[in-house]
Amino acid sequence: MKLTSIFRVTPLAAAVGVALLGGVAIAEADPLSLRLSQTFTRDSNLLRDDADKRSDVISSTGVGLNFNKPYGRQVYRASLNASRNSYNNNTQFNNNGFGGDFGFDSDLGSDFRLSLAGSADESLPRFEDQGNRSVRNTQKTSQASIDLKYGLYGKWSLNTGLSSNNLRYAVVKTEEKTSRGSHVGVTYLPDDLTAFSSTYYDTRTDAPNRFGGLGDKIQRSSLDFGAAYQVTGLSLLRGNVALTDEKHPADSRLNFKGVTGAASWAFTPAGKVSYALSWQRDTNNSGTSSAPGSSNSFYTTNSQLTNTMSLSAKWQATGKLAMSTAYTHATYKENYGQFFGSLSGSTSDNGRYHGWSLGVDYQALQSVGVNCTLQNYDRTASIFSRAYSGDTVSCGANLVIDRLP
User: The pTM is what?
Assistant: First the structure.
């Protein structure tokens, strides 16, 4: 179930979430379940800005309803959630979070599977992603997708699909965008332990408020080659490499043509300890910022290439107690450009992020769990980011009721 969170979803936070949640499974005896949660977090650098370093304590109270029901050859999924996030000192950021999603899978005949999915949510975005950090710039997102797969039980399968994504902001609307995507791919399973895939993706993104209102229509295509190998029952390797071409007709300095990709390794040498290693390389140009000047003939624009490496480990000490740790290191290659009339100029810079975390999760009962996490983060100043460093301490509890009348 998805619950709106007060955590900043840095690469570190993503790794921590996988490490913590992966070891605590709560069986859903009935299709309908209710989840209640309460979390308190102390953040020593709330705005992610060393020049305006503020500490604060945030309270997040959440409630969520989840539905998951297999019915014959079909599976229905849906969830609704809401949260109240309150800041002790910076009350201007107090906000309510809402979200919901649905999914539907159905086998058609003996060879086809149709999947539908959609979601929508409203939340406060990460402070480090905001140019103006003095306002509550609430974001609203919505996604929808349809996917059709042919070949459910043989060595070969084909899949194709369409997707739609929308992003809107309450105050600063420069980065609002609408994306439409499609893909077609093939997967080959030579045996039970190995899989190979090749997929072509095409995405068109419209960001009408960029470049002082001139707008940016982004065209991104990539040919992705992937592989997965179950080395043993305790080790899984995954990887993909993509030939990516991203074009920005409004400003060619944002164009990217090169190799992107990701790789991961999950290893469980013993029954109680597991390790994970992941790497990702991608451009973020379709999601970066542009800043208008005093007129539509002047604007600044940025581009970015990111490499991220994450390590995590989890120790399932008992059936109820789990401990985890994670480390993330990211490097950023960035470019900054200015345009005024027929004159233009650009410069480049590099940035770095690293952080670590320690976490403990205790499942007191099947329906009751508590957890605490300590995180430390550090980011150097660059074109895209202000310098920031600090730590967070977070403790929470959750109650899951999976036998509703």
Answer: 0.82
